[in-house]
Amino acid sequence: MLVSTAWLADHLNDANVAVIQVGHDHGDYEKEHIPNARFLSTNDFTTGHTGLMVELPASDKLRQTFEDLGINDDTRVVIYTTDWYPVAARAFFTFDYLGHTNTALLDGSLAQWKAENRPTGTDEPKIAKGSITPRVNQSVLALLADAKAASQPDSQFVLVDSRPKKRYTAGHLPRADDIFWEETVASAKKPIFLPPEDLRRLFSSRGVAPGHKLITYCEIGLQASHMYFVAKYLGYEVSMFDGSFYQWNDVEHLASVKGNAPR
Q: Whole domain around residue 66: which residue ranges?
């Protein structure tokens, strides 16, 4: 699920490894990217800022998008970004949803790659169309009904708010614990993940003990995708509420809790 820059350097030319740079701006990719990396626009695997905001497109659209990147069922996908780091995890979540589980994030992303003076380039690789068999895993996608059920006092699920503390305090789903996504990495600009033991301590300190089933959420499903990745990395059973606080508060106008306490 998480590969180091050293691992990627050793496997960069492997025939079954596809490195993907995710982002909004193709111009960033044109300026420099990891050699052989392909570019994946966020517009091609989300619905953008329409409707419920940044939702999953239809599975056929996702299949076509990933096949156009040369992805096959046995491809080892490694994702990084030069954008806001949760964008990378959103791509990971999307591959997971489609059933392509041989996917990883690059620890530290391009920033760490460059800090180690590893090579970058500007050439775009020639891509042969891939072939993917979608195996949609609906269980990783939490819906509004799931979030409502998890907010009830007798629920066995734990809601994890992945937003900054000030946003959590301003209003959050009932029973939600808070772990801001930036707390799981060295910093937003140096997105190297904390060691697993430190991540487990962080989760436990917020009341998210091992063995619980989690539902992550944020504003519109980006920060929550990062927390989905972290929870899965630590072995939790987890799903992501894609509609997130936007659907709960702005669309459905459901009751939220203000302050630092879950309830």
A: 2-115
Q: Residue holding tokens 């539902």?
A: 215
CATH number, position 179:
3.40.250.10
Give domain status of residue 121, yes or no.
no
Nearest residue to 143 via CA among 248, 262, 254:
248
Is 220 among the domain residues?
A: yes
Domain count, the chain: 2
pTM to 2 decimals? 0.96
Question: What does residue 127 show for φ and ψ, rounded to 5 degrees?
Answer: -115, 125
Q: Which residues lie across from 237 on neighbouring strands?
A: 213
Paired tokens of 88: 């990378």
Amino acid at 35: P
pLDDT tens series, the chain, 263 aa: 999 999 999 999 999 999 999 999 999 999 999 999 999 999 999 997 777 777 999 999 999 999 999 999 999 999 999 999 999 999 999 999 999 999 999 999 999 999 999 999 999 999 999 999 999 999 999 999 999 999 999 999 999 999 999 999 999 999 999 999 999 999 999 999 999 999 999 999 999 989 999 999 999 999 999 999 999 999 999 999 999 999 999 999 999 999 999 88
- Give yes or no: residues 179 and 107 share one domain: no
CB-based contact 54:48 (threshold 8 Å)? yes
Same domain flag for 163 and 232: yes
